[in-house]
């Protein structure tokens, strides 16, 4: 059975290989080349909302399908989670 969902992918101008928003090699929420470790969104609107809230200009929502490979169910760690009303390290605030 094929499952479908939406991922956040970086444009090829940033990385030549597909790169997704998900669990990176350190086990932290970030960017990964492994689509199985990507955050899966049920709706495109949800992926687009994260892109807008983070202010990413080189990312886009992409529909993706999986062949039923089971997901590893465990919580992700975040390197530095910020509430949505707090400025980022570069001084910008989420929109």
Q: Give the integer mean of the pLDDT values.
A: 79
Radius of gyration: 14 Å
Give a short account of the largest sheet: 2 strands, antiparallel
**Range of strand content:** 25-35%
Structural class by SSE content: alpha+beta
Q: Trace the largest sheet across and list its strands.
A: 1-4
- Given as residue ranges, the uncertain stretches (5+ residues, pLDDT < 50) are 78-87
Total number of helical segments?
Answer: 1
Number of strands: 4
Bin the helical content.
10-25%
Description of the structure:
This protein has 95 residues and is of the alpha+beta class. It has a domain at 3-66. 12% of the residues lie in helices and 25% in strands. The strands form 2 sheets. Strands 1-4 form a two-stranded antiparallel sheet. Strands 2-3 form a two-stranded antiparallel sheet. Strand 2 (20-23) and strand 3 (29-32) form a beta hairpin. It is globular and about 40 Å long.
């Amino acid at each position: 059975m094929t499952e479908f969902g939406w991922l956040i992918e970086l444009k090829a101008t940033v990385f030549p290989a597909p790169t997704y928003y998900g669990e990176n090699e350190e086990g932290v929420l970030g960017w990964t080349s492994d689509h199985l470790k990507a955050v899966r969104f049920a709706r495109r609107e949800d992926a687009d909302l994260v892109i807008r809230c983070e202010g990413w200009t080189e990312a886009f929502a992409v529909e993706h399908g999986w062949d039923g490979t089971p997901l590893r169910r465990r919580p992700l760690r975040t390197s530095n989670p910020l509430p949505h009303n707090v400025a980022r390290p570069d001084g910008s605030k989420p929109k």
